[in-house]
Amino acid sequence: MRISLIGAGRVAHHLAHVLNAQHQIVQIYSRSLDKAQQLAAQVGAEAIAEVEQFHSDLDLVIIAVSDQAIGQVIQEVHRDLNHVLIVHTSGSTKLDILQQHHARSGVFYPLQTFSLEREIDWSETPLFIEAAFAEDQQLLMTLANSLSKRVYAYTSAQRLSLHLAAVFACNFSNYCYDMAKQVVDAQQVDFSLLYPLILETAHKATQNDPRQMQTGPAMRGDHNILKMHQDLLAVGQQHELAKVYAMMSQQILKRHQS
Q1: Is the domain of 119 the same as that of 227?
Q2: Is the dihedral of CA 231, 232, 237, 239 positive or negative?
Q3: Residue ranges of the Pyrroline-5-carboxylate reductase catalytic N-terminal domain (predicted)?
């Protein structure tokens, strides 16, 4: 397939590299020509900064930009690409945002956290597709199956629930790691001592029902330990962390009292 990408950030970077192994990345379009040129050079594509420069013989255009920019981007590019299938990569954005401007529209959402510094295993990354037309849905299904063993045709509502769950499972849990590091840093304790605990917790959550795997003082209803921890946070001037600790402990108590 001849594929062009809109965007030159983390998602675009990973998609360009994995797709380039089996398909042709034709162009990288970005308002930042420098970023487009950097990514294009890595995959042998052409960098462009004007929508009028898009080639007409494309099979697919992937919009890989921030959620809030998708609506503006499709309005800018759909006239020059009115015959081409255009998809976005967002978990929380409905198909409608493209469909109201562009007939051949779809979604190609990888459920993964992307960083430029780390490679990901695409074969195990769930991919979620949706399209306005059945033939385009099949095209996206074929493309997704060339990358991953886990491909699903999900609606916009289903993807939104996954995206919300991902915020809890990924973004919030990572912030918990950040808070944990703040606590031990205050006492000059090595954060890496927590690595085995972090990994075992993740393993248990992926192999069992997380509710059944809950441990700790809140689950046990150990109010003496809960107070000791909150007092330590108060003494350490980590008042904001104390608020989070109290709120999360209360939710765990309620969840396990039932």
Answers
A1: no
A2: negative
A3: 2-89
Give the pTM: 0.89
Token code pair at residue 25: 């990345």
Based on the structure, what is the number of domains in the chain?
2
Are 18 and 102 within one domain?
Answer: yes
Q: What is the domain extent for residue 138? A: 2-154
The CA–CA distances, whole Å, from 240 to 175, 212, 228 equal 13, 29, 16
Q: How far apart are CA 55 and CA 246, in angstroms?
A: 56
105, β-bridge pairs: 86
DSSP string across 197-208? HHHHHHHHHHHS
CATH number of the domain at 96, please. 3.40.50.720
Phi then psi dihedrals of residue 144, to 5 deg: -65, -40
Question: Which domain CATH number covers 233?
Answer: 1.10.1040.20
Residue 62 near residue 45, CB atoms below 8 Å: no
pLDDT values of the chain reduced to their tens digit, one per residue, 258 residues:
999 999 999 999 999 999 999 999 999 999 889 999 999 999 999 999 898 999 989 999 999 999 999 999 999 998 889 899 999 999 999 999 999 999 999 999 999 999 988 999 999 999 999 999 999 999 999 999 999 999 999 999 999 999 999 999 999 999 999 999 999 999 999 999 999 999 999 999 999 999 999 999 999 999 999 999 999 998 867 889 999 999 999 999 999 986
Query: How many Å apart are CA 141 and CA 149, to the nearest integer?
Result: 11
Distance between CA 146 and CA 101 in Å, rounded?
Answer: 29
